[in-house]
Design a protein that fits this description.
The protein has two domains: 107 residues, PAS domain (Beta-Lactamase, 2-Layer Sandwich); 227 residues, Histidine kinase-like ATPase, C-terminal domain (Heat Shock Protein 90), CATH 3.30.565.10. 42% of the residues lie in helices and 21% in strands. It is built from ten helices and twelve strands. The strands form three sheets. The chain has a five-stranded antiparallel β-sheet with strand order 2-1-5-4-3. A five-stranded mixed β-sheet has the order 7-9-10-12-11. 25% of the residues are buried. It binds adenosine-5'-diphosphate.
């Protein structure tokens, strides 16, 4: 006990220095005390919050319920989604204990931990794990079925039937390869290990490679690829594998989210400012203006529920990182007549 210091100033300093928010309320819900961390979490200062209801200082994100109802109905309080004074959504983990105040009145002490970041990370992980198994299972099942058919009946198949099965295998393998490439890039981006390896490259070769990789996907949806290349394309210094991946991601999206039987266009244009602009145009449903900024972030998928296409929302974030590592920019536009134009630029620099 020799180190214990019961002086009130010391106790006050202790409470103020806690990283957890401490709020004490009366039975009516009126606030009696807020420490510094609670001021930070709620956005209210102690002087402003004093005497106000906790319902007002910490409104829940879903307006149906109020903080106090939540508190009294639950024994173990699950994380609460609230909105702080600045309008920021916060997820709070709260423990409540009883406190006998000096005048004999009953108060409740709320010990609050801001778990917004942990909660968001946890949700991303759950979402990711739920989707990734599906993403692998779909092409793997198709692959297995085609290989089994081939093994069972290879003698009796016509050349065309065999070709059809091999095409299906090629399609599944391409889907798996794109998925694995995006996953690997994403992991190295997150770990801060992402680096590009530049080499003097002939872009028309990359365009041919990307078109070959895309073939099974396009054939399946009866789409053709129309390419527009400038007459003279200089050699440029880029990471050829990564740039092919950018093209494949944008072309796959144009194919997936565009209608069947409609061509997709890929255009390379040399610009005045010594950059090369590469754009992929489709006739899909387009991207609403309010989503244009967000769409390049990880795990963002639009209309998740009625989105008939599989995906995990990694492709465009990988595209953005690769392009920006080359000193370029990404963007998208509405396409006249309907659809989207996803584009990126690459500085020509030195070959
Ligand atoms: P994924 O396709 O795996 O979901 P992306 O990062 O490539 O991941 O794309 C994110 C989201 O952007 C898609 O889920 C889709 O909602 C939307 N999107 C991407 N490209 C297009 C496009 N060409 N047309 C319409 N929507 C698109």
């Amino acid at each position: 006990m020799s180190n214990y210091h019961p002086d009130p100033q010391w106790a006050d300093n202790l409470i103020q220095s806690l990283p957890q928010g401490i709020i004490t309320i009366e039975e009516s819900g009126q606030i009696v005390f807020l420490n510094r961390a609670a001021e930070h979490i709620t956005g209210w200062t102690m002087a402003e919050a004093l005497g106000k209801s906790i319902n007002q200082v910490l409104p829940l994100a879903t307006a149906k319920e109020q903080f106090l109802e939540h508190l009294t109905h639950a024994t173990a309080i699950p994380p609460i989604n609230a909105v702080n004074r600045q309008g920021r959504d916060v997820t709070l983990s709260i423990t409540a204990t009883n406190l006998e105040a000096a005048n004999g009145a009953h108060q409740t002490v709320l010990v609050i931990r801001d778990v917004t970041t942990e909660d968001a990370a946890q949700r991303l992980r759950t979402y990711f794990l739920a989707n990734i198994s599906h993403e692998f299972r779909t092409p793997l099942s198709a692959l297995k079925a085609s290989v089994e058919l081939l093994l069972e009946g290879v003698d009796g198949f016509t050349l065309n039937e065999t070709l059809e099965l091999v095409r299906s295998i090629h399609f599944s393998v391409t889907s798996l390869q794109t998925l694995v490439d995006n996953l690997l890039e994403s992991v190295s981006i997150e770990a801060g290990r992402f680096r590009i390896r530049r080499r003097s490259t002939d872009l028309s070769v990359l365009v041919t490679e990307a078109s070959t990789l895309m073939k099974p996907l396009l054939e399946r949806r009866n789409q053709t690829l129309i390419t527009h290349l400038p007459d003279q394309l200089p050699q440029i210094s880029v990471d050829p594998m990564r740039l092919t991946q950018v093209l494949v991601n944008l072309l796959s999206n144009a194919s997936k989210y565009g209608p069947t039987d409609e061509p997709i266009e890929l255009a390379l244009v040399l610009q005045q400012d010594d950059t090369l602009k590469i754009s992929v145009s489709d006739r899909g449903s387009g991207i609403p203006a309010e989503d244009k900024e967000n769409i390049f972030r990880r795990f963002i998928r639009l209309d998740e529920k009625d989105n008939a296409q599989y995906g995990i929302g990694l492709g465009l974030s990988v595209v953005k990182t690769i392009v920006e590592s080359h000193g370029g920019t990404v963007g998208l536009e509405e396409r006249p007549g309907g659809g989207s134009i996803f584009w990126f630029t690459i500085p020509l620099g030195e070959a």
